Amino acid sequence: MSAAVSVLSATAAAAQTVAVFKDAGCGCCGGWIAHMQQNGFSVDAANVEPERMQQVKSRAGISSDIASCHTAFVEGYFVEGHVPAEDVERLISQRPDAAGLAAPGMPLGSPGMEGSGAQRYQVLLVLKDGTTEVFAVH
To answer: How many Cβ atoms from other residues are within 10 Å of residue 45's Cβ?
Structure first.
């Protein structure tokens, strides 16, 4: 990616605030938040109790098969789990008719889950009817 494109992406992201709901004791959620901030997003994080977390996910239409540890919202979309900032930027710029993105589970090597043993994982575009399609592969 050229430096100009990188600066433009960071500038576009800077206007976006990501609202994150997470468990207070979850370190990987903090890692994902740091990743988003490093990529120009403003983050408003709220620590919530597990039962409240389930309510957040349920209201957003996030089923257990695509769930992860934290749930975020940006520009009318949900972002479930360890989705890379570049995918969130693409979602915002393309504005598909969808509910959001999900990186199901907690894939090793994803933002906030760095370390040894990185695995290949998919980011899913979750359509408004709950069906999914592959949005990106990392």
So the answer is: 18
Three-state SS for 136? strand
What are the counts of helices (DSSP H) followed by strands (DSSP E) for the chain? Answer: 4, 7
Listed residue (32, 40, 34) closest to 16, CA to CA: 40
Helix (H) or strand (E) holding 9: helix 3-14
Is 74 buried (19+), middle (13-18) or exposed (0-12) by CB count in 10 A?
buried
pLDDT number for residue 24: 86
**Tokens 């979850």 found at:** 26
When pLDDT is cut at 50, 70 and 90, the band that residue 115 belongs to is confident
The angle that helices 27-38 and 85-94 make with each other, rounded to 10 degrees, is 60
CB 137 within 8 A of CB 116: no
Q: Mark 79-114 as b/e (b = at least 16 C-beta within 10 Å).
A: bbbbbbbbbbbbbbeeeeebbbbbbbbbbeebbbbe
Three-state secondary-structure class, residue 64: coil
pLDDT at 26 over 80: yes
Provide the pLDDT confidence category of residue 59 given band limits of 50, 70 and 90.
very high
